[in-house]
């Protein structure tokens, strides 16, 4: 009998996470408002479907691969930085955490210039604040800033 490995467990865990994410998006946040268009759960619900389908595909693909999984330093850095965003969200909020992540990643790991970093940050800020915050009306977690403001 084959051993169960992380390449089977992680896709199943992510598929379960996608189901919860989609349920919250559709039933708690709302998917579509007939009068105003997309509701705050519109984008999370779509991303949940994509995440669910890719998780199932990754699970099926894991049986076709032989050998053990080797985790490289760069891959673990991405996972650690994602965990860092989640943890710092409780302190400085989601938007601040994402902006800090972009700056740190581009300056420290990619060695990008300040000009390129600020241009990318401005584009991301426009998308996050303009599209998600204003147009879709998503309320981002503010972390401890919620109590200060």
UniProtKB/TrEMBL annotation:
InterPro entries: DUF1468 (IPR009936). The keyword Mitochondrion does not apply. The chain crosses the membrane at residues 12-31, 43-64, 76-106, 118-138. Keywords: Membrane, Transmembrane, Transmembrane helix. Residues 9-141 form the DUF1468 domain. Coiled coil: none annotated. This is DUF1468 domain-containing protein. It comes from Lacrimispora celerecrescens. The lineage of its organism: Bacteria, Bacillati, Bacillota, Clostridia, Lachnospirales.
